[in-house]
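Structure catalogue
Derive tokens from sequence
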Amino acid sequence: MRLAPWWALLSSGCAPALLVGAWTIAQLRQGPGYDPVRQTLSVLASYGASSYWLMTAILFGLGTCYVATAHGLRAAALAGRLALAGGGLTAFALTLVPAPTSGGALKHGTVAGVGFVLLAVWPPLAADRKSKSAPWGLRFGVSLTASALMCASAVWFLAELKSGGAPGVAERVLTFVQALWPFVVVISCQRRPD
């Protein structure tokens, strides 16, 4: 018995592909003045950026993927599904508060921070703590490890942001891991023996 429908595999698989594809195209469009090591993805999605509309569309697509995947992951606990869907809704909200071209970005940073937190806590919240036959992606230990990896990536991102080092690299690692994990969980639900 499959614990997630085929379309959840599609929605969860599209999330990391959309994310990486979008930031790659947006970087190329932004030109040589953009430094993907030192500048965040928010720069690509800020007002006036050459790929503003592309990044805005991708945030809607990414949010849709998260919400659809949360709906399809029937084997996951409700709290985790709600946190994953909430992460998708924050992607929508980011389109309403893009980073400004200059100055502070408190509203943008707050919305992005809420999204990072929701996407970091959804794995252990979604875990099945009672069943020993749960898909491996929904086992508590595995989910806790995934969450710890996301939290460590977030700490790395914040440290790089504060030091002015390589926040662009750290943010890409963080967002990729967070986009990939729902796909991993859905695969574990698809591969579960009958």
Q: What stands out?
A: The two ends are 5 Å apart (CA to CA). Residues 6-190 form one domain. Residues 38 and 165 are 6 Å apart (CA to CA). The chain has a mean pLDDT of 92.
